[in-house]
Structure formats: structure tokens, C-alpha cells
């Protein structure tokens, strides 16, 4: 049921990710965000199983209809989720933020700590710590700026301010490469499964889009996302976000390079399994990193814009890489894919911030020069 999960997690998912991010402590935030992202993998595996069962017997309309069910189920739960207390404080709605925190504490069968709810961390003029009665319920390290009254366009333009422009452009390149690489690997599974016969013996080629072997290959490689998420969970809070992405992207290149030449079907499936594992892990950490690096005032806008750039990568991918494979230019397609991944590695290395173990910020002051 990948379409259902994909619509929410990849199109609306940056909003959910940004929202969930603000409830998780920094010490193990990466691991919990990987767990959150694992539902994409559950959808991928479920969709592969659904296609395997449904397509040979019915048609794509049944598959699409059944795949949309999770989206409708999710609608029923939206009314139960609390609003982000950080967002409410930045909007000056501290009473609503306090009620949201009280509801969260009640669900967790605990009590809020004593203190005054404020939107920003501050220090006393003498530099001493504030007394216990002034301990903040929400912590941040921003200044006194808020986004109350700002339009969506103004928030978007803030991404290109002098303090955020470099980060925004590099994140866009990273997410473009992530999405391009992910969907290229997914689509190469079906293309390479028939490439050998088509390009070496054109007269003998007969394409069967409903061949069960195609769905079996898709199911096997979709399972690669599970160890990919485990690898991401291990690395994200130990090696950090930037190094984790770099390691997993580098491994994906090593899996893809042998595909420059024709390989057996078994070896091809195995290499794509490894590539999809690493690309999925890098993609997951990149989405977490994109949401963490922006302050609350523009977090959803920034993560959403970066995610939109990733969608462009996903749209361009079939027109370029997959079309090359379909026309028997496998080497060119694989080289292009590796170049895109290397560009993503360079982009993440040039981003000047590491968010591992860092408190989330509320204002643009977090990215001061």
C-alpha cells in the first residue's frame, strides 16, 4: 500500500516529521525519527506483496484503490494529534501550548514540571541561573524573533536570507540527489530484469509486464529497506547526520558500480538490494537532518521546500536514468546515477551544521554566522 503511505509520508510527510521531531529529546531523536520513517518501508513491502497477488488476477485499478485505504484511515486520526507547543509559543498562544503539554503529560500519566512556559531561553542579567520557579517547560536557543503574522511567501523567502541561503541550496541538492537515487534504484529493478534479453537478443525479446518474477524481484529488494533503516538507526545517533549520509551513499556507489557492465539476474538483484538498502538509509537520515537544521519558525517550510526539490528529482529520474537503460545504455545510466550520488555527498559535506545531540532551535539566530 505504498501509494497510500507515500502520499502522506513523502508529500505531507515533512509536516508530520517536523511535528513529531519537536516532541523527541535530542539524545535519541535520530533513532526515533528512523522508527517514524520505517512506515514508508512497511508501505513499500506491503505494496510489493499486493502487486504480486493482485496484478496477475485483477488489474492496476484494484491495486491503486486498495493502496489508498491507509490514507483514508489516517484522516480519522488527525483530530487526535496535539498541536506543536513550540509552534504555539512562537505564535504567542502560550495558553494553548500549556494545554497541549498538559494533555501530553496526562496521556503519559505524569505531571508537568514546575515552571513558567516561555517561548525562548533567556538568562538573568547577572549571568546566574534562573530560580526553579522560572525554569522553562520548553527549551530553545533562539532569540526574540517570531514569525507571527508572516505569510507563507515571507517564510519561504526567509530560506534565502543571508544566514540560511547556503544551507537551503545545499539541502535542495542533497534531497534532489536522494530522491533521484532512490527511485532510480527502485525503477532499475524492473528495467534490468528484462534488459539482458532485450539488448542482447532483440528478436527473442518478449516483454511481460505482469511476469511474476518482476513482483518477486520488487518484493525481495523492498525488503532491503529494513536493514537500511537498521543501519541508519545505528549510525544516526553515533556517527552523526552528515557522516551517516556520507557513509551510506558511499556504500550505495560501491553496490552500483558493478552494474556498469551486464551481470547475471541473481547478482543484479543482489547488488540492487544492497544499493536500495544504503540509499534508503541515506534518504531517511537526510529527511531527519533537513527538519532538524531549520528553526521552528521556518522548519516545516524549509523541510517542505527541500522535499519538493526531491520530488523534482523523482520526476526527472524516469526521463533520464531509466530511459537510458530502456534504450540499452546501462553503463551511461549507472554512471549518471553515481555522479548524482557523489554530488549529494559533496552537498552534505559542505553544510556547516551538525545536528547530532543538539537542541532544536526556534529562530533563525541558530544559524548565525
Written account of the structure:
This protein is 65% helix and 0% strand. It has 15 helices and no strands. Helix 9 packs antiparallel against helix 13. The chain starts with a helix and ends in a 19-residue tail after the last helix.
End-to-end separation: 45 Å
The overall average pLDDT, rounded, is 75
Number of strands: 0
Question: pLDDT below 50 for ≥5 consecutive residues: which ranges?
Answer: 1-11, 121-149, 201-210
The secondary-structure element order is HHHHHHHHHHHHHHH
The gross shape turns out to be: globular
Keywords:
about 375 residues; mainly alpha; globular
How would you briefly describe this protein structure?
This protein is an all-alpha fold. It is built from 15 helices and no strands.
